[in-house]
Structures are given as structure tokens and as C-alpha cells.
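This part of the workshop introduces the protein records we will be handling. A record pairs a protein's sequence with a compact description of its fold. Comparing a sequence with its C-alpha cells is the quickest way to learn the format. The record below serves as our worked example for the rest of this section:
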Amino acid sequence: MSLQPSARPRGTESRGLVHVVVLAAGEGRRLGLGPKAHVTLGDETFLSRVLRSCRDADVGPVHVVGSPRDARIEAACARLGARLTLNPAPERGMSSSVNLGLAAAQEEGPAGGVLVFPVDVPLVEARTLRLLGGALALGPDVWARPVFRGTSGHPVALGSGVIPALLSMGATVPLRDALRLLDARRVDVDCDDAGVITDIDLPEQLAAARAAVP
């Protein structure tokens, strides 16, 4: 199912009912600058950019999954108003951080769904987050992904009914594989936002992003 921006049902924009899980437990080895949460773009860090987009989109609360080896993550989350969950063994892979983040969001209380937001995709615009939050209003068994010019990207939006099933699969199944196994409706949300496919993993990608950001 594909949802065009102009076809979004009236009244389905997210209104703070969608939690956000920011995946920030990696060491950023390929980029070579330490944990990506603290790498700067313009006058902001990756993490502060992600949280600003969340605030502007009126989604939250935000749960950051970080590494205990990141000495700066606790202070950064406190300053930015995000909850912090530490992944005791981030070397297990991103699926372990997804599992911990979803569990933290579940413990926070009822929500219309969760956005799973890798911190290395810091250029996603607030309007895209609103579209993804709106897609979750189609039903609790929905999961949605943003699509820019035919290419899918991040963050991924998970309906409230999808999350318990994902948690039951444990911390070793990658999110992409888990979603394939579920009988959940996928919604492709077309957006005019190249940020959804702009992963910053390598020095040349960071240089290009810095050249494009004022």
C-alpha cells in the first residue's frame, strides 16, 4: 500500500502520541569520529538534529539507545530532554538496540506507535515524521516506511499492534527480517525528502552533508 502526501487522511497527523526510538549505540568506526550521536553537522550534532526534527513534528517522547562506552551520551540526552537506555552489549548488533528501545517505549505507556530512527540519518525533515505518524492511524497492524523517488529509507514507523510481536522475536532478529515474518500491512509513504535515504557512514558522506548544510 502506498500513501501519497496529498492523500493523507485528515486529522491523522501525529500529535505527540508516537514514541521515538533513536538508535545510537554504534561506535562509528567507519566514520572514524567516535559515536555518531556527537558528530556535528552545521552547529548541531546528529543527535540534536534528530531530536529537533522530532520536536518540530510533535512526536515523542524520545528514547535513545546508547552504549555504556560512550562517555558523553548521558549528558547529551539530559541536555536534549531524551530518555536514555544503555545497550550493555551493542556489539550484538542493531537488532539488540531496537529490542531494548521498543521495550523502553512499551514501558513508558500506551502510544499510537513507534518511530525507529537511526541516528546516522540526521537530515530527515519534520514534515516526513508527521507523514509517518499519520500513516499509523490506518491501524495498529500497520508499519510504514518513507520512500523518496522509489527508494525506501528511514525512520520506520511501527503500529502499536506490531510492537509486541517484534519484542516476542527477541533481540537477535533484524528488524527488516522480523517485519517480513509478521502479518502486518506495509505502507509506503511517498515523500519529497532526500534525508530519508541519506545515511552518513563514511567520511565522504559526511563531507557531502556538511557542504549541503548551512
